[in-house]
Amino acid sequence: FRLHENPEEEPRILLECDSGVLDAIQKHLKLYKIRRKVNITPCLDLSLWAVVPGERAGDIAGSLAKCADQALISTPDPRTEVMGWRLITKKGANLSEIIPGSQIGNIQDYHRHRYKQGIPEGVKDLPPGVALPLESNLAYMNGISFTKGCYIGQELTARTHHMGVIRKRLLPVQFLAPLPRDSIPEGAEILTESGKSAGKFRSGGGDLGIALLRLANINEPLCLNIAGDKVKLTASIPKWWPKPASK
């Protein structure tokens, strides 16, 4: 998020990241600042909120616009409209004052919503050094620019994009029944009915999750082996994806 309003101001950028890799991200950014006079500081006095759309999403947007001065950042989620708004406030801010009539859910509610939509977030869904941008659908979520200058992995990403051949993607998956918490190992293999590998499970909770799957297999019966038992699951194409992607 850009905090400075015009080019004459000192540039200030607020970066949202997975708290579990805060130290690693700071080291990575410091490595590339070279001799620039750039200060990189964690903002531990801020809180991040997701305002998930409901039946009165328009009213929420109006409330956020009216009370923007009470929040440091209030903006539509840049990834996709179905994820609602991102709200950043000082710690201890009263959300009922910023969004009158709102209900505060828990973090599990938020994760269930994004699992349903197939939205990856954090290092479990996007393991560093493993996840590829296009397979992770970042081109659908304003996460890749094909017009800016060079960046690490640019050639492979641009070539794959322009060739249009992406065989695997992150997709929402659903189990027939809720699974015990943390019962699925990270990266567990997903199999077709014939025992062929269809992809890998990334993360989830209850009966929902996200998996990296071969698009050719998503309409087949799929299953996971958990402690010797076969657990069935289904995959789906999110409705918010651009139309050509579902062909």
Automatic annotation (TrEMBL):
Cellular component aspect of the GO annotation: mitochondrial matrix
Keyword Secreted listed: no
Coiled-coil features, chain-numbered ranges: none
Subcellular location: Mitochondrion
InterPro entries per UniProt: CAF17_C, TrmE/GcvT-like, YgfZ/GCV_T_CS, YgfZ/GcvT
Residues in CAF17 C-terminal domain copies: 167-243
UniProt keyword list: Mitochondrion, Transit peptide
GO terms for biological process, alphabetical: iron-sulfur cluster assembly
Any single Pfam family the record assigns to this protein: Beta-barrel_CAF17_C
Superkingdom per UniProt: Eukaryota
Name assigned to this protein: CAF17 C-terminal domain-containing protein
